[in-house]
Amino acid sequence: MLVALLIHLASFVVHSLLVSALPQFSTSSFVQRPGASLAFVDKDNSNIISPSQKKKFQCSMSSVSLDEMTDADAYHEMISAAVDLTSVYVRNGILYATRSVRDIDTNSRRAFLYSIPLATDRQSPFIPPPMELPTKIKARIPSPSGNKLAILVEESIPPLESNNGNENKRALFEIWTDGGHRLENRIVLPKEKHGPVCTDFDWFGGIAWSPDETALVYNAEVPSPKTASFFDTSSKLVDGTVAGGQYTLGVGKSENWGEKYISTALLGLFCVNVETGRIGAVENVPMMRDPATTTGGYVLGQAIFSPCGQSVAYTGWDAGGGGDMPRRLGAIYCFQRPCKIYSSPVRNLLTELSKPRNDEEDCERDDGFECITPHDRLARSPRFSKVVNGHAKLAYLCNTKGFDTHGGCMALHVADWNLSQESFVKGSQRIVVDVVSMPGERGDSAVISGISFPGLFLNQLPDQCFSHNLEQIVTTTEWGSTTKVVSISLTDGSVVPINFHLAGNDNVVQRQESSDRFLCFTDDGGAIVAQSEPNRPTVLGYLQPDFLTSGTTLHSCHLLASMPPFSCTSSGHVHSFFRPGTGYSYRVMNVHPPHGNVKVPVGAVLLIPEQLENERFPLIVVPHGGPHACMPTSFEKAGLSYGFLCKHGRYAVLHVNFRGSTGFGQAALESLAGNAGSLDVLDVVAATRAVIEMGFVDPDRVGVCGGSHGGFLAGHLIGQHPNLFKVAAMRNPCTNIASMVTATDIPDWCYIETLGTG
Q1: Mean pLDDT, to the nearest integer, of 649-668?
Q2: Which of 138, 266, 519, 532 could form a disulfide with 634 if both were Cys (CB 3.0 to 4.6 A apart)?
Q3: Residue 49 has pLDDT above 70, yes or no
Q4: How many CA atoms are closer than 13 Å to the CA of 61, on its beta-carbon side?
Q5: Residue 43 — left, alpha, or beta (φ > 0 → left; ψ -120 to 50 → alpha)?
Q6: What is the DSSP letter of 225?
Q7: Contact by Cβ (8 Å): 691, 702
Q8: What is the C-alpha to C-alpha distance for residues 487 and 335, in angstroms, rounded to an integer?
Q9: Which of 535, 679, 688 lies closest to 620 in space, CA to CA?
Q10: Dihedral sign, CA of 34, 40, 42, 43?
Q11: In degrees rounded to 5, what are phi and psi of residue 304?
Q12: Helix axes 679-692 and 709-720, enclosed angle (nearest 10)
């Protein structure tokens, strides 16, 4: 049933575009007749296309298949080929990669762990069979040496009489030693200490080992105040229970961070000694919270130990305690929420936790915290280098001024860390790469797909980002309509793209237009990277240790793993797995429309079916959501479902990165604020007309579809340009911004995008 539903949803645009070819039905909808196939009707349901008319009409569109089983198999073929990597690291010569796979039957995801030897003498890569990870495993954190492995587990325990016979769950850390072969300790995390551990490693979450591998630092939900009904006579108020507080904001009800974070209110930092199993809260943090309420304060996350192991550095988001956020707003895809980087000494806390039992004497408290970025509105993602000649560096992402839009360009800052004083060196903060307003303004010589360096557009730095000699930082950033691996000199701030040939494309131009990712360093100074194209799923590769010093424009890269497809449903099997590079091609476009004050190209990624002679395709235009996001040239983003429509349905698909998208400089991004519904609409129209002028698209069969802001644009496009777009499919569109203000977790989006910044 799920597969059938997905196919009908995927076929919505297909059927609608068929209807749009008949002028008298240009505003049609469609209905399902009992016991019959889809019937097409006009707005008032007065004119129904007869089965004979429909059959004749379909014959004229013979390139589009409407056979459900064929559609299901073809869709299954595409999504089974996706390679979604969630965790990649190297320890002791083994590459460990966790792959997330869709399970359509259960509407969930399964996780598989690959263990790939990094032997370089093999002529062809060898991949042992992957191991499926149980759903109770929430995180796997290897120690720096690889000798230990911490696994966060959530498990069910038998019902207890004290719990009224209900199933109970508990979280615990499993500590594996001897290279992960021996289970040495199981540390149950008591609910009296904290709530669920945050495993959202893309944003708030973070679990890290101490350098000596005796402790972990992590963040978890702080306990809410105890509440009871006024009429519950069994409750004793002497233990801090708040009578009648179960429906009070900040007591029984918590202010959360919106979509995806509805269970996240206030996160604190905690340390656990992996040998004694003792757990303690890091209390010397910004605005120590009031245990009687969950309002105000700071949300703490992204914590890591300093190289000396006696301090932790972390990001603190203003949750109402710093004056920048009067209340918590949505956090998902909202990268403008005020945050700073702090450090707190934990020497005394770690000493206390290392003792086998509590002493009667109170332990000496650690010194207070320090704010490393007091003058920066946005600062996040702290990363330490290794120690070289007694010195270490701290790198982090920063935007001193901040931005009001939900995404923006970040700067790269570094500071020196004093090991003897166990803190950063005051006044040592410096800018390595500043915010870029217009591509090319820094004078960088590198150009990718017609775009000079547009600035750093990334959410977090890699866990390992410093080169072995501490002369460069390596990371991944959006660059136009692509994502690229870049090397950043810590000496002069120069940014150099690391180009490599891995995905198998022999086209010299499209080698540059692939989307690449830096995943981690290897023990010898090489790098594990990933590469993908809209018609090629992600593959893993290894860059030689000289990739930072060779000076070549195209680096030699050894293919490590081309992961085979995984079947995603039991409703049918894949008759022929997707063969990379077949069925359709792609090209990256830059359109230069005359309108708009910021003259930056409008980017686009165009998918084109394998063309027959004199064939003209229907076109589906897809503006992305956000709006401050970007559609890159990767299979898992620009391909996949859209590749299904292109390869199997034989539709040309146009992804448009209108001005306001990330990866094109801060000025172009901010130019959309106050102009939503006009500038972005004209940009999409310009890109669409540029494709039509190429000659292989039928101008009478053009449709648009999108979700969120993409749905907002789809409505505007078919409303403002009905002669160009014949049909629109809108998913969760923003259609009434005036009423949205009081119903959404991102009311600031409504004001900024309609009225502008400032």
Answers
A1: 96
A2: 532
A3: no
A4: 24
A5: alpha
A6: P
A7: no
A8: 23
A9: 688
A10: positive
A11: -140, 155
A12: 70
Name the residue type at position 376. Answer: D
Q: Which residues of 667-699 are buried (b: 16+ CB within 10 A; e: fewer)?
A: bbbbbbbbbbbebbbbbbbbbbebbbeeeebee
Rg (CA), the chain: 27
**Torsion angle (degrees, nearest 10) of CA 628, 633, 639, 643:** 120
CA distances to 195, 265, 266, 333, 375 from 296, rounded to whole Å, are 18, 10, 9, 22, 21
Q: Is the pLDDT of residue 188 over 50?
A: yes
Q: Of 116-130, 328-342, 406-420, 693-707, which gets the smallest average pLDDT?
A: 116-130
**Residue 627, Cβ density class (10 Å: 0-12 exposed, 13-18 middle, ≥19 buried):** buried
- Residues forming beta bridges with residue 279, ordered by sequence position: 272
The three-state DSSP-derived secondary structure of 677-731 is CCHHHHHHHHHHHHHHCCCCEEEEEEEEEEECHHHHHHHHHHHHCCCCCCEEEEE
By C-alpha distance, which of 703, 728, 727, 724 is closest to 714? 728
Q: What is residue 223's predicted lDDT score, i.e. its pLDDT?
A: 83
**Which residue in 445, 442, 451 sits closest to 483, CA to CA?**
451
Q: Are 619 and 651 in contact (CB under 8 A)?
A: yes
CA dihedral for 686, 692, 697, 702, sign (positive or negative): positive
Amino acid occupying residue 477: T
**What does the alpha-carbon distance between residue 430 and residue 395 come to, in Å, rounded to a whole number?**
10
350, 271 contact by CB (below 8 A):
yes
Give residue 173's pLDDT band: very low, low, confident or very high (50, 70, 90): very high
Structure tokens at 40: 């097409």
Q: Are β-strands 149-157 and 168-177 bridged in parallel, bridged antiparallel, or unpaired?
A: antiparallel
Nearest CA to 510 out of 496, 531, 487 is that of: 531
Three-class secondary structure assignment of 412-425 = EEEEEEECCCCEEC
Helix (H, G, I), strand (E, B) or coil at 584: strand
Neighbouring residues of 567: CB distance < 8 A, sequence distance ≥ 6: 76, 80, 573, 574
> Quick one: DSSP state of residue 368?
P
In order of 125, 287, 344, 418, 665, the CA distances from 391 in angstroms are: 39, 31, 19, 7, 34
- pLDDT value for 572: 63
The residue count of the chain comes to 758
Taking every pair of Cα atoms in the chain, the longest distance, rounded to a whole number of angstroms, is: 90
Q: What is the full DSSP assignment across 75-123? A: HHHHHHT--EEEEEEEETTEEEEEEEEEETTTTEEEEEEEEEE--SS-S
Token pair recorded at residue 342: 């702090």
Distance between CA atoms of residues 434 and 466, nearest Å: 18
pLDDT score of 503 = 58
Handedness of CA 750, 751, 754, 756 (dihedral sign): negative
% of the chain surpassing 90 pLDDT = 55
Q: Which residues are within 8 A (CB) of 553 and not within 5 positions of it... i.e. 6 or more apart?
A: 499
Q: Give whole-number Cα distances, 586 to 189, 411, 638, in Å.
A: 50, 32, 10
Q: Which pLDDT score, from 0 to 100, does residue 573 have?
A: 65
Q: Which residues of 26-59 are buried (b: 16+ CB within 10 A; e: fewer)?
A: bebeeeeeeeeebebbbeeeeebbeeeebeebee
Amino acid (one-letter) located at 381 = S
**Is residue 471 within 8 Å of 513, Cβ to Cβ?**
no
Cα torsion 148, 190, 264, 637 to 10°: value is 30
Instruction: Report the chain's mean pLDDT, rounded to a whole number.
Output: 84
Structure tokens at 429: 């903060």
Contact 288, 298 (CB under 8 A): no
Contacts for 117-123: CB closer than 8 Å, 24+ residues apart: 117/93, 118/90, 118/93, 118/94, 118/522, 118/542, 118/560, 119/93, 120/542, 120/558
